[in-house]
Design a protein that fits this description.
Blueprint: H1 7-23, H2 32-36, H3 43-52, E1 66-70, E2 74-78, H4 87-93, E3 101-104, H5 113-123, E4 127-130, H6 136-146, E5 150-153, H7 157-168, E6 177-180, H8 187-195, E7 199-206, E8 210-214, E9 223-225, E10 229-234, E11 248-254, E12 261-270, E13 285-286, E14 297-299, E15 302-304, H9 306-315, E16 319-328, E17 333-341, H10 349-360, E18 365-370, E19 381-383
Parallel strand pairs: 3-4, 3-5, 5-6, 6-7, 16-19, 17-18
Antiparallel strand pairs: 1-2, 7-8, 8-9, 9-13, 10-11, 11-12, 14-15, 16-17
Helix pairs in contact: 4-5, 6-7, 9-10
Length: 390
């Protein structure tokens, strides 16, 4: 882990771990090393817990006023008090205040996205029109009628609303801020909004843990990690924490006293940034979304999962990392398992072949490569087969 932290960051880290120790009194959590010794809770296990003990799998939940459902299905609690999902920080960071009227186009149906952004707007005393998604023509009409100053929703839907406003002659000149998530914010899209006088900033959040990281008015080179969570990046499918800068599975410890979670995998890939911010953002930052951590891939009728790849590494001392590559020769899937090692010429090839066959249940070519040769992109199962129709 990066150790060159400012005094402010050390204080922040200390506060986080003191809070974690209070919320999880049955385990010792004084630093990241303590966290790393504990298992990661992944969604398949969480689903199993919820099936056995509905609706929240026996997790600590207090003061919940709502129950939401996300694909899986996974059930999440929500509350109406004290900015349950911490979105007020994102709202404040992009200048939303009591002077603003928010057109909230995130869904209020089943998933908590709409409620998340609404709670954040209320935390800074802004007014909210709960429009939800769709009906772009009516959205443009409403935004003009109420004088909406802020849009909340996916990055691309704002383009549709603006186009409808232009088409029907609705005046959206008061709209000057956009809080977006749940989709890619391309540089050109951000620039196009800026030309209309709309400052567009994004956040990274999930239904399970709430706000994870966010941009600010001044900082768009990475997203600031929220104060009341602890973010770790682990090798996909394992409990092993990666150094800052390497892409891996995002694991979050949530310090919400109403619904604390310990080492919960949100199922995404990202990395903690190491380079200094050119705009002076001194706090820890995430690079943003880099793909899904659950890289389960079907080969010859069998699924290969990141957890299996991790078991291959664990079985052989000296093997540092592994990457499974799936390709096709036109008639049959080909499987190559690349194992990275400092002393790559010293391993028993037959033993490696046996381990791979036993764990993956598939025949594969096993290749040991020098340390540092495998890309540090968080991909442990690379599906290189052509997409049908390409």
């Amino acid at each position: 882990m990066t150790t060159d932290l400012s005094g402010e960051q050390f204080l922040r880290e200390g506060k986080q771990f003191m809070t974690a120790a209070k919320l999880f009194p049955d385990v010792t959590i004084n630093n990241r090393g303590d966290l790393a010794s504990l298992p990661v809770l992944r969604k398949d296990e969480y689903f199993k817990k919820q099936t056995e003990t509905p609706p929240f799998g026996g997790m600590q939940v207090t003061n919940a006023s709502h129950i939401f459902q996300s694909p899986g299905p996974i059930y999440e609690p929500g509350g109406i008090a004290s900015d349950w999902w911490r979105f007020g920080r994102f709202a404040k960071a992009i200048g939303i205040s009591s002077d603003d009227i928010v057109l909230n186009t995130f869904s209020y149906h089943f998933t908590p996205a709409g409620a998340m952004f609404e709670s954040g707007a209320h935390a800074v005393s802004a007014s909210v029109f709960p429009s939800g998604p769709g009906q772009s023509t009516q959205q443009a009409e409403v935004a003009a009628a109420i004088g909406a100053t802020t849009y909340a929703g996916t990055p691309d839907f704002l383009q549709t609303i603006l186009a409808k406003a232009d088409e029907h002659g609705h005046d959206l000149s008061r709209l000057n801020k956009a809080a977006v998530s749940a989709g890619p914010l391309f540089p050109q899209m951000r620039e196009d909004y800026m030309k209309r006088g709309i400052v567009c900033r994004q956040c990274y959040a999930t239904a399970d843990v709430g706000l994870i990281a966010y941009e600010t008015t001044d900082c768009i080179d990475g997203m600031l990690i929220d104060d009341d969570i602890i973010v770790e990046i682990v090798t996909p499918g394992t409990n092993t924490t990666l150094p800052d800068g390497e892409v891996g599975e995002v694991v979050v410890t949530v310090l919400n006293p109403n619904h604390p979670l310990l080492r919960f995998s949100v199922g995404d890939l990202s990395a903690i940034m190491t380079e200094p911010s050119p705009t002076g953002c001194g706090r820890p930052r995430l690079v943003g979304w880099r793909g899904r951590a659950d890289q389960a891939t079907k080969v010859r009728g069998m699924f290969i999962r990141p957890e299996q790849v991790a078991r291959i590494v664990d079985k052989h001392p000296g093997i540092e990392r592994a990457r499974v590559e799936v390709s096709a020769d036109g008639s049959r899937d080909q499987l190559t398992v690349k194992l990275e090692s400092t002393d790559h010429n010293s391993h028993d090839q037959e033993a490696l072949n046996t381990t791979v066959a036993e764990i993956l249940k598939l025949k594969a070519e096993v290749v040991v490569v020098p340390s540092g040769e495998l890309p540090k992109d968080g991909i442990v199962i690379a599906d290189l087969r052509p997409v049908p129709g390409d």
